[in-house]
Write a structure and sequence with these properties.
The protein is α+β, with helices and mostly antiparallel strands. The chain has one domain. The protein has 4 helices and 4 strands. A 4-stranded mixed beta sheet has the order 1-3-2-4. The longest helix has 18 residues. The radius of gyration is 14 Å and the shape is flat.
Length: 112
């Protein structure tokens, strides 16, 4: 994982945005990204993953839990062990029943 500050100015890389998170000891959200591959050598599956994940994450950020869940489920059919997808799907399932309160769409990462 990288912060957007690290990625700024780097060209030629395929990254996947993971959203804004408040990291332990911080009060200002940090935009996190996952470095996937050199853009020129990225596979069709990697490009597809980034596109579908972006759509699902956008739905998540708009609190469209069912739409976001569908996108994340679609990803898990191809990448069943994808950690970010599993994380956001679990959040969708939780928030569908008990909507979040407080600042949105920032997520908090705890030291637990």
């Amino acid at each position: 994982m990288l912060s957007s500050e690290v990625v700024d100015g780097l060209d030629g890389f395929l990254t996947r945005s993971l959203g804004d998170f408040i990291l332990p000891g911080k009060t200002i959200p940090v935009k996190l990204l996952e470095l996937i591959a050199y853009r020129q050598s990225a596979s069709e599956e990697q490009l597809w993953l980034c596109e579908i994940f972006m759509r699902a994450l956008n739905a998540y950020q708009l609190q469209r839990w069912i739409e976001a869940s569908q996108g994340f489920y679609e990803i898990l059919k191809v990448f069943p062990t994808d950690g970010p997808t599993q994380f956001f799907l679990s959040m969708c399932l939780r928030y569908k029943d008990v909507p979040p309160t407080g600042p949105w769409p920032t997520s908090r990462i705890d030291n637990k």
